[in-house]
Design brief:
By secondary structure, the chain is mostly helical. The protein has 8 helices and no strands. About 65% of the residues lie in helices and about 0% in strands. This is WPP domain-containing protein.
């Protein structure tokens, strides 16, 4: 290919730097600030802010599945407090996640109104995570306490459980 043909080919396939700069969007101008080799390969690449809150439904479902596994499978938690059946763990996990999501979402509106800058959601995600942990622990502790409590027997009318054998109720 002659030099003239190469020049015509390059003009057709890629604009010159001057043309790119004049017609660039803010994202394209930002990509020119990147490493020149990257900017050449991806001239229209834009760097966008990534937010992590609210989580996608897929992420929330993964959290629920992990909670079910944690509550029903052998673990350090189950050694101390016992494990739940798969059905009980499933319903508890859904309730835990929904309550934690609602709490974090409510604090999101408060946090965003207090902050003057845009937040990527990391603080809200931390609240969500802490709420899940707190509620999971409350759930297994309540289950362990219910299992450890002696069954309450209903006393028959006119009898007293405080009476020792051989003593009469009327002293």
């Amino acid at each position: 290919m002659s030099e003239n043909e190469e020049q015509q080919h390059s003009e057709v396939t890629s604009p010159t730097m001057a043309e790119t700069t004049e017609e660039s969007s803010p994202e394209q101008k930002h990509s020119q600030d990147l490493d020149p080799s990257i900017a050449k390969k991806f001239p229209t690449m834009s760097i966008k802010s990534i937010t992590i809150w609210p989580p996608t439904q897929r992420t929330r479902d993964a959290v629920i599945n992990r909670l079910i596994e944690t509550l029903s499978a052998p673990s350090i938690l189950s050694k101390r407090y016992g494990s739940l059946s798969h059905d009980d763990a499933s319903s508890a996990a859904r309730a835990i996640e929904e309550e934690a999501f609602a709490t974090a979402s409510a604090s999101e509106t408060v946090s965003r109104s207090e902050l003057s800058i845009d937040d990527d959601g990391i603080e809200i995600l931390q609240i969500y995570s802490k709420e899940i942990s707190k509620r999971m622990l409350e759930t297994v502790k309540a289950k362990a306490a219910a299992a450890a409590a002696p069954p309450v027997a209903a006393a028959a009318p006119g009898t007293s459980e405080d009476v020792s054998p051989g003593e009469s109720e009327t002293s």
